[in-house]
Amino acid sequence: MTTQKHYTGLIERYRDRLPVSATTRIISLNEGRTPLIQLQNIPRMIGKDVEIYVKFEGLNPTGSFKDRGMTMAVTKAVEDGSEAIICASTGNTSAAAAAYAARAGIKAFVLIPEGKIALGKLAQTLMYNATIIQINGNFDKGMALVKEVANHAPVTIVNSINPFRIEGQKTAAFEIVDELGFAPDYHCLPVGNAGNITAYWKGYNEYATDRVCGNRPVMCGYQAAGAAPFVAGMMIDNPETVATAIRIGHPQSWDFAWAAQKESGGWFDKFSDEQILAAQKMLSQYEGVFCEPASAASLAGALQDIISGKIPEGSKIVCTLTGNGIKDPEIAMQQCADAKPVTIDASLDAVKRAILDCL
Ligand code: F0G
After folding, report:
1. Ligand 1 pocket test: which of 134, 138, 196, 220 has the largest number of ligand atoms within 8 Å of its C-beta?
2. Ligand 1 atom closest to residue 160's alpha carbon, by position in its atom list
3. Which residue, among 242, 321, 240, has the nearest Cα to 282 in the 3D structure?
4. Dihedrals φ, ψ of 134, to 5°?
5. In terms of Cα–Cα distance, which of 295, 166, 161, 281 is closest to 224?
6. Cα 244 versus chain centre, distance
7. Whether pTM exceeds 0.85
8. Which atom of ligand 1 is nearest to the CA of 194?
9. Could you state, in chain order, the average pLDDT of each consecutive group of 10 residues for the chain (359 residues)?
């Protein structure tokens, strides 16, 4: 009998392609190796012959793709002797930073826009014991402050301007190719600060250069209509969207994201909050996959472009679902306001009636 090696995270798995040495102390929570789930019902419902896969990054240890970047960023921060990390965040980066700092035994400071991060993200960041600094300004303001304060205090920035974040996150592209045996024709993902589209494009390029795959996908970046600087072609000052994770107007990886779009022959587009929420609900109801609102922008975009024919039939498409739906219980409850639970007597008769009434 062969004993399978215990999975210990993406740095171990892809160490040949990551900036670590044999002596590096790896800070990991066994992130990565997330499921690539092929949608079964939605393609049939739209009547199109396409293969749509969702890369469910919400199943990472803190519930988002940020764990991929954070294992790498915190590993390198610790290797460099740093005792504290800092980030600005719309919620997921803060949760990941806090968790990996706890794992490493260092301190995490997170700047978040007051009242604008989902409840689950706040709760987990508190539990991981980060120091939370709320600001009366948005993510972009927080990001500017973090960049400034890092010049005045001994803290390592772990936002995606930290190149090690991109290194970690590029492994999602590796996993997709390793699993499918090829790169998809189209890769659809939500875009906020634009680190993730940068990372995927880097990953696909590295694999294509080394001939691990023969093709590279067209990169499709989808934004919320009220926070769509890439669609506007310029930074915007007061981003607004129900998808708070991508409520960003001044993306840091501006040039990298444009390079991904241009080099891959891809595009950016924007979707209303209603369209994003409809896609989130559709995915839950018809596929049993519950992602957070921002994540659903990828499916909203893919479906629109498949239906219009911009993404042709016969295509293989991967949508990244960046975060877990249970991070944002308030939006979920609003989405299901009409589906109130019935309250009945605790008797066999009443339960029977409740069931028969619904069939
Ligand atoms: N989806 C989710 C769930 C996110 O949390 C983010 C970014 C994105 C998509 C966009 O990814 O920034 O690489 O383009 N969240 C950051 C945060 C900004 O602070 O958690 P991106």
Report:
1. 196
2. 13
3. 321
4. -90, 140
5. 295
6. 12
7. yes
8. 14
9. 81 98 98 98 98 99 99 98 98 98 98 98 98 98 98 97 98 98 98 98 98 98 98 98 98 98 98 98 98 98 98 98 98 94 95 94
